[in-house]
Amino acid sequence: MSLSTNHLLIIGLAIFVALAGLLAMRTALAGSDANMVVTKSSNYAAGETLDRLTKALESKGITIFARVDHAAGAKKVGTDMPATELLIFGNPQLGTPLMTANRAIGLDLPMKALAWTDEGGKTFLSYTAPETLKARWKIKDRDEVFAKMTGALDKMTNAATGN
To answer: pLDDT in tens for each of the 163 residues of the chain?
Structure first.
């Protein structure tokens, strides 16, 4: 039995539609919690937002490791960029249990928060959700640690942004 050109075109189209559907599903799943970034609007400029976050973190005994001014770096190479600053911070009491579960999480720890201003002058504060780290590094037995991180980050970033 031979298939006509029309039949072959219909079969080819059906295969294409099925593959496109699988690709769309894969893309939707890739955008799930495994890649979640929390972004909050801030009532303050980027620098002040990070000053406020630093104060909130230090009041809880959390170590500030570094602050990076990306806009200043851009200026050094002759490029103007709206305010964009990164704060690197951590708490060994929470991070160490995660590191012992999967040391590769050290690629994401210590935690980071980015205060940035968009082209319209609005400031935001973004950070990787702890649940994202849990999913990314497949850590299953440290739910209490992730819950503490989530609660603490939410409270401290709300204080920093004035929300």
So the answer is: 565 666 555 654 445 444 444 344 343 334 444 569 999 999 999 999 999 999 999 999 999 999 999 999 999 999 999 999 999 999 999 999 999 999 999 999 999 999 999 999 999 999 999 999 999 999 999 999 999 999 999 999 999 999 9
Q: pTM here? A: 0.78
Q: Phi/psi class of residue 88: alpha, beta or left (left: φ > 0; alpha: ψ in -120 to 50)?
A: beta
Give the range of the structural domain holding residue 56, as residue numbers without chain letter. Answer: 34-161
Q: Look up the CATH number of the domain holding residue 123.
A: 3.30.310.70
Residues 21 and 54 in one domain: no
